[in-house]
Amino acid sequence: MGLRRTRECKAMLFPLFWCECDSCGHRFDVQVGPERYEAVVLISQGSNSPAKLIPREDPMFDKVWALVKDLLSTTVKKDIDRARYFDFIFGELCDPAPDGTPYDITGRVWCPRCHRRAALGGPHDPPKFATEEIPDVLHTHWDGLSPLQRRERVRKLLEEKKGKATY
Ligand SMILES: [Zn+2]
């Protein structure tokens, strides 16, 4: 069952959305996830370079969420707000993308030409999909941390994002 499911995941089609930069007018494509909790697609802040993580196959996702819920248990009341903080720190806990910038899962998009924030447009008509397989996101730094160090790292990032975790 597990193996069969893994193969299905590899064959997943990842849609491409068009985007347009308000600042310089550049039009470009960005990878989006097929279904948020089936596979999470991260994109790098520097060049929209995609990577994926499949939560049910990678325990990091649940571990970070458990830490975020615990650390925000008294200060942030709703899970939906805690989830926003999770989105804003998760990419920074992964190893940086090949372009040297952090990955991001908030759905924000940056123009690869002028590096300002750009608007996520929508699906192409007819729809376009990625032709290459998306690599798994790496988190070797995270893997090397002790449980206490992981907690501390998450705590620090949550502190940094206080009041700034807005899309
Ligand atoms: Zn631009």
Q: In percent, how much strand structure appears in the residues?
A: 15-25%
Q: Can you summarize the main beta sheet?
A: 4 strands, antiparallel
Q: Distance between termini?
A: 38 Å
| CA radius of gyration | 16 Å
What low-confidence regions span 5 or more consecutive residues with pLDDT below 50?
1-9
Total strand segments: 7
Total individual domains: 1
Task: Kindly report the average pLDDT value.
Answer: 89
Encode the helix/strand succession as letters. HEEEEHHEEEHH
Bound molecules: zinc ion
Strand order of the largest sheet: 2-1-7-6
The percentage helix is 25-40%
What overall form do the CA principal axes indicate? globular
Classify the secondary structure makeup into a structural class: alpha+beta
Count of individual helical segments: 5
Fold topology:
Blueprint: H1 2-10, E1 15-20, E2 27-31, E3 40-44, E4 50-53, H2 60-71, H3 79-93, E5 103-104, E6 109-110, E7 117-129, H4 140-143, H5 147-161
Antiparallel strand pairs: 1-2, 1-7, 3-4, 3-5, 6-7
Fold and architecture overview:
With 167 residues, the chain is of the alpha+beta class. The protein has one domain (14-161). The protein is 33% helix and 22% strand. The strands form 2 sheets. A 4-stranded antiparallel sheet has the order 2-1-7-6, with no helix packed on it. A 3-stranded antiparallel sheet has the order 4-3-5, with helices on one face. Helix 2 (60-71) packs across helix 3, helix 2 (60-71) crosses helix 5 (147-161) and helix 3 (79-93) packs across helix 5 (147-161). The N and C termini lie far apart (38 Å). Mean pLDDT is 89; it is low at 1-9. The structure holds zinc ion. Zinc ion is lined by residues 21, 23-24, 26, 111, 113-114, 116.
